[in-house]
Specification:
Layout lengths: L4 H16 L12 H5 L2 E4 L2 E4 H13 L4 E2 L5 E2 L1 H9 L9 E4 L3 H6 L12 E3 H4 L3 H11 L9 H20 L10 H10 L1 H12 L6 H20 L20 H6 L1 H4 L4 H14 L3 H35 L1 H19 L4 H30 L7 H22 L4 H20 L16 H34 L5 H37 L7 H21 L5 H25 L13 H19 L9 H5 L6
Antiparallel strand pairs: 1-2, 3-4, 5-6
Length: 624
C-alpha cells in the first residue's frame, strides 16, 4: 500500500491541474459574459481580451480578481467589466475601491463598517468626496514621491483608481444616457437637420434650438469618450494595418458628423448595452457571437493570441502552482518524520509537477509577448522561482533526502507570492520599454543574471534549512549536515558563474545603450555585490576559514544581498535603471532581512550554540 502513495499523490496533483484547464462557462439563460470577456480591445499598445483588462484593473483597485457582493456571491472579472462598460448603474454599488489609510476614510466620512469590514468601497460611496479627493491629490502631487506621507500616497492612488474606473466606464457607450441604442439611432436619423440648426445658430439666424442643443450635448459626450476612454475597441477597416490603428468608440462616433452613418461596432456596443440593461440574454449573446465571428473573419491571426490569453488567465496556472508547492513542502517535511521513501518521492513528483506548470505558464507568456522570459519585475519573480525549483529537482535526484524538495516548495511558493503582489500594479504583459527593447540582451544578460539570483537564493534557503533543522529538530544527523553543506557549495559555484557572466554582459549592454561599460549605478553595484559575496563564500570554503555553521550563516546572508540587488536598488528611485523603480515592498524587504539575520545569529553567535538540539543526538561536532 505504501508503494502506491507516491503514485496516488501524483494522480491527485494531475487531476487538480487538469481541473484548472476546464474552460469557464456562463450559466444557461444568462448573458454570456465569458464570450464577452474574450472580445479584443487595444490597451497600452497591446491587443488583449476584455477579461485581461478586468483582471488587471480589479487587482489594481482591490488586490483581488473577483468582486464579492453583500449576499456572499461573487462576480467574475468578465461579469464586473460587462456591468461597468455597458452602463449598469449597479456597477456603481460594487465595492471595489480598497482604502487602507484611516485618515483617508475619515476625510471621506467613511468607516470600515461602510466597506463591509473589508475596507472596500463603491464608486457611489466615494462620489460625495470626489472633489475633496481631487483637491488633496493635487496638493500632494508636487511633492517628490519619496517624501510623500502614507496619506498622500494613498490619496493619489485612490484618485488614480477612480480615474481609471471612469475611463473604463466611458469606453464603449456614451456616459449618462439611459438608452444609448435609441439615442444613437435617433442621432443618426436627425443628424443632417440638427447640424444645420447648429450652423444657423452660429450665424445668428432662426433655428431649431432643441435640435441644436441635443446634437451639441451628444457631441460633447462623444468628445469626452474620445479624450478619456481607456479602451480602443474599434478595429481598423484593414486587417493588415498595425495594431495602433484600433480606435476609441468616441473617435469613431465623432466621425459620424462627416460620414453621416454610425460605425457598425459602435452600434453593436450600444446594442449590447440595451440587451444587458433590459436582461435580454439571447439578444446579448447573439450580438457577442456576431461580433466575434466578424472579428475572427478579419483578424484570425491576431486573435489566436487573444483567445489563448483568455484561457491562460482563466486557468491561473501560477495560483495552481502555489497550491502544488505548499503540498510539496508539507510532504517533504513529513518525509523526515515517517515513510521517507514514499513521502519523499511524492514530494519530488509534486515539485516536478509544479515546475512543469510554471514552465508552461512562462512559455505561454513568452509566446504572447514574443519576448524572452524576463521583461519586468513580475516576470523576474516567476523566473527566479522557476530556476530555483529546477535546480532543486536536480539536487533532489542526486540527494534523495527531501531537502531540495522542501527548499523548492518554499522558494516556488515564495516566488509566486511575490509575483502576485507585483501584479497588483496592472497588466503584467505590458509593452516593452524602449531601453529594454532588445531580445538578444533580454535572452542573455537578463536571463543569465536572473538564474544567478535563483541559485544564490537556493543556496541561502538550503543553508536556512540546515539551521532550522539543527535548532528546532533532532533530525540533522551528520550525513544530512554534510549533504546540505555540499549542496550549498555546489549551488554557490553555479551562482558565482552565472552572476559573473550576467554582470559582464550587463556592462556590454550598458556600453551599447548608454555609452559606458560601468557607471556605479545602484543596480550595477548590486549585481557586483552578489558576485563578490559569492566569491567570498567560495574562498571561505576553499581556505577552510570557517566551519559548517559560519559557512551556512554566510550563505543565508546571500539572501539579503540578492534581495537588495533585485528589489532594494529599485526602491532608491535613482540611477539609469528607472524602468525597474518601485515604491512598494520596503517593509517586506526589511522583514525578510530581519528573519535572515535571526537565522544567522542562531548559526554564528556563541551564546546560541546551546539552542541546537541536533548536536545532542548525533554527538558530532558540527559547529565551526
Amino acid at each position: 500500500m505504501k508503494k502506491l502513495v507516491s503514485l496516488l499523490v501524483l494522480v491527485l496533483g494531475l487531476l487538480y491541474v487538469g481541473s484548472t484547464l476546464i474552460p469557464p462557462r456562463s450559466p444557461a439563460g444568462t448573458p454570456d459574459t465569458v464570450a464577452f470577456g474574450s472580445l479584443p480591445v487595444l490597451v497600452g499598445g497591446r491587443i488583449k481580451p476584455l477579461d485581461t483588462v478586468a483582471r488587471a484593473t480589479l487587482l489594481q483597485l482591490q488586490g483581488r480578481q473577483t468582486v464579492r457582493l453583500a449576499d456572499g456571491t461573487k462576480l467574475t472579472p468578465s461579469d464586473w467589466i460587462a456591468a461597468v462598460l455597458l452602463g449598469d448603474r449597479q456597477a456603481h454599488a460594487y465595492q471595489v475601491f480598497e482604502i487602507l489609510h484611516p485618515d483617508v476614510l475619515a476625510l471621506l466620512k467613511l468607516s470600515e463598517a461602510d466597506g463591509g469590514g473589508k475596507k472596500r468601497f463603491s464608486y457611489a460611496q466615494l462620489t460625495p468626496g470626489l472633489a475633496e479627493i481631487e483637491r488633496q491629490a493635487r496638493l500632494a502631487e508636487p511633492i517628490e514621491a519619496q517624501r510623500r506621507t502614507p496619506f498622500q500616497r494613498e490619496i493619489i492612488r485612490l484618485r488614480d483608481n477612480i480615474g481609471l474606473f471612469v475611463r473604463i466606464e466611458c469606453s464603449l457607450i456614451p456616459p449618462d444616457i439611459a438608452q444609448p441604442l435609441d439615442e444613437l439611432t435617433t442621432f443618426q436619423k436627425n443628424l443632417v437637420p440638427a447640424v444645420a440648426a447648429v450652423r444657423l445658430r452660429q450665424q445668428g439666424k432662426p433655428h431649431d434650438e432643441e435640435a441644436a442643443r441635443r446634437v451639441m450635448d451628444i457631441a460633447s459626450r462623444f468628445d469626452f469618450m474620445a479624450q478619456n476612454a481607456y479602451l480602443m475597441p474599434v478595429p481598423p477597416d484593414d486587417a493588415e494595418r498595425e495594431d495602433i490603428a484600433w480606435r476609441k468608440t468616441g473617435a469613431v462616433l465623432l466621425e459620424t458628423f462627416q460620414s453621416g452613418e454610425i460605425e457598425a461596432h459602435a452600434l453593436s456596443y450600444a446594442g449590447l448595452a440595451y440587451a444587458w440593461r433590459n436582461q435580454k440574454a439571447d439578444e446579448f449573446n447573439t450580438i457577442v457571437k456576431l461580433l466575434r465571428a466578424e472579428l475572427e473573419k478579419r483578424f484570425a491571426a491576431q486573435l489566436v493570441k487573444v483567445h489563448t490569453e483568455t484561457r491562460f488567465k482563466a486557468a491561473e496556472p501560477f495560483y495552481a502552482g502555489m497550491v502544488i508547492f505548499v503540498a510539496t513542502l508539507l510532504l517533504a517535511v513529513f518525509s523526515w518524520l515517517k515513510w521517507p521513501g514514499e513521502l519523499g518521492r511524492s514530494a519530488f513528483y509534486l515539485l516536478a509537477l509544479g515546475w512543469v506548470l510554471m514552465t508552461a505558464g512562462i512559455a505561454t507568456r513568452m509566446w504572447l509577448e514574443g519576448r524572452p522570459p524576463v521583461t519586468n519585475l513580475y516576470s523576474s519573480a516567476l523566473f527566479v522561482a522557476w530556476g530555483a525549483v529546477g535546480l532543486c529537482l536536480v539536487l533532489e535526484k542526486l540527494q534523495t533526502r527531501g531537502l531540495a524538495s522542501a527548499a523548492g516548495g518554499i522558494i516556488g511558493f515564495a516566488g509566486l507570492i511575490i509575483a502576485h503582489h507585483l501584479s497588483l500594479g496592472g497588466d503584467t504583459l505590458e509593452m516593452m520599454r524602449a531601453v529594454l527593447d532588445s531580445n538578444f540582451w533580454l535572452a542573455t544578460h537578463v536571463v543569465i543574471i536572473t538564474i544567478g539570483y535563483s541559485a544564490t537564493y537556493l543556496a541561502g534557503f538550503l543553508a536556512a534549512l540546515y539551521i532550522l533543522r539543527g535548532v528546532f529538530t533532532r533530525s540533522l544527523d551528520h550525513d544530512t549536515a554534510v549533504a546540505l553543506e555540499r549542496m550549498v557549495y555546489g549551488i554557490l559555484c553555479f551562482a558565482t558563474l552565472f552572476s559573473l557572466v550576467g554582470t559582464i554582459l550587463g556592462g556590454i549592454w550598458a556600453d551599447q545603450s548608454w555609452g559606458r561599460f560601468w557607471g556605479w549605478d545602484p543596480k550595477e553595484n548590486g549585481a557586483l555585490i552578489i558576485v563578490i559575496w559569492n566569491a567570498v563564500l567560495l574562498h571561505v570554503r576553499w581556505g577552510k576559514l570557517a566551519g559548517p555553521r559560519p559557512f551556512m550563516a554566510l550563505a543565508v546572508f546571500g539572501n539579503i544581498v540578492t534581495s537588495w540587488s533585485w528589489f532594494g536598488t529599485n526602491l532608491l528611485g535613482v540611477g539609469l535603471h528607472s524602468y525597474g523603480f518601485t515604491d512598494r515592498g520596503f517593509y517586506a524587504l526589511i522583514i525578510f532581512a530581519a528573519v535572515n539575520l535571526v537565522l544567522i545569529a542562531l548559526a554564528a553567535l556563541p551564546f546560541t550554540q546551546r539552542l541546537w538540539r541536533s548536536e545532542v543526538v548525533t554527538g558530532t561536532i558540527l559547529k565551526g
